[in-house]
Amino acid sequence: MKPEQLRLIQKLAEVSEDAMVNNAPASLIDAISEMNCKAIELILEDKITYQDTTKTIFLQKLQEVFKEFQKKDNKLIAYEGKYNSDECININKKGIAFVGNKSGRYITFIIEENEDGSLKDIYNCSDFYTDKRVIDENKRQLSFTIYDDEKVTFVPSASYDDLKNKSITALNEIQLFNDCEISKDEIFTWIKRYEELYISMNRINNFYKYHYSFYWLYEHINQIYKFLMIENEAKIAIDEFKSISLIDEIDLLKWLVKQEHLYNLLILLFGNVVSEESLKTGKCVLHQDYTVYFKIDILKNCINLQELLEKYYYEKLNKYNTLSPEEQENQIPFDDGYEETSSLKYHLQLRGII
């Protein structure tokens, strides 16, 4: 590293002369701790790849991580450690955990040096152990992804380019709604327009930047679309509820059993789509990466039905459950028989009630 680079780094990172070590890895640790991308840019060499990608892309990813840290932290504390997974070739490689000084969130890097002490590579890792055990695993670990098409060795094919261009078109179409309301019909139109593109993609193998972004955007909006598709059925269920007598428990149980399929469909509505904030504001964000919103009124029947089912379903399931408390505690979703034993209908039939 040239002397003028060192002086600029020292000034940008605002570290003392004692802390300023005359080699790139040590300077890099200081600069990351200060979340100073300008200093990091001076330290990293232009012609070297970092995490298999270019310096420019690596810095862009790192800057996004810093933005997330800076929502709560103004400094990252560096702790030495090593990679801890015995399932990876990087096991026992030394690195640094950078922990937010206020939030406790963290990101970990392996920093490799050449024999002369210069920087060889830096890359993000997940399974990391620090000497002082400072990582709180209950805190969020931040990281970033280098997609296959961001790597310097990537060679695009004609089919890749075609899917990429279509994905960008679909993403841009949603972005046009940023800071604006999107209607139910516009959601329907977008889902139908790009359904074929979505089906053509493989969620595992298409690990490319725009393909990946489109795939998971479509997954989320398609979930909203599916809720919209059962709005009328939800309204019918609510109208039927209004006609039953809550004094007669059998009527309520019959209604709950009849709506079990809707209960299972609506179980992801709150949290995944409708938040507590959106219930207050009447607006729901279409996707976390965008500022597009829709009025929750278009899902009012699903919301109202879910609230009704939440109020009565678990109460009756707990009351009539035929499993012992220990058996209930050991139930695991997706295990064989779970769908049946978590059903109110199943337990009512065993008891001869319905």
Q: Can you put this structure into words, describing what you see?
A:
It is a single chain. The chain is an alpha+beta fold and 354 residues long. It folds into three domains: 3-150, no CATH class; 158-227, no CATH class; 230-350, no CATH class. 49% of the residues lie in helices and 11% in strands. It contains 17 helices and seven strands. The strands form two sheets. The chain has a five-stranded antiparallel sheet with strand order 4-3-2-1-5. Strands 6-7 form a two-stranded antiparallel ribbon. The protein is globular, with a radius of gyration of 27 Å. The termini are far apart.
List strands and helices in order, with pairings:
Layout: H1 3-13, H2 24-33, H3 37-43, H4 55-69, E1 76-83, E2 94-100, E3 106-113, E4 119-125, E5 128-130, H5 158-175, H6 184-193, H7 195-199, H8 209-229, H9 231-242, H10 249-258, H11 260-266, H12 269-272, H13 276-281, E6 283-285, E7 293-295, H14 300-320, H15 325-329, H16 338-341, H17 344-350
Antiparallel strand pairs: 1-2, 1-5, 2-3, 3-4, 6-7
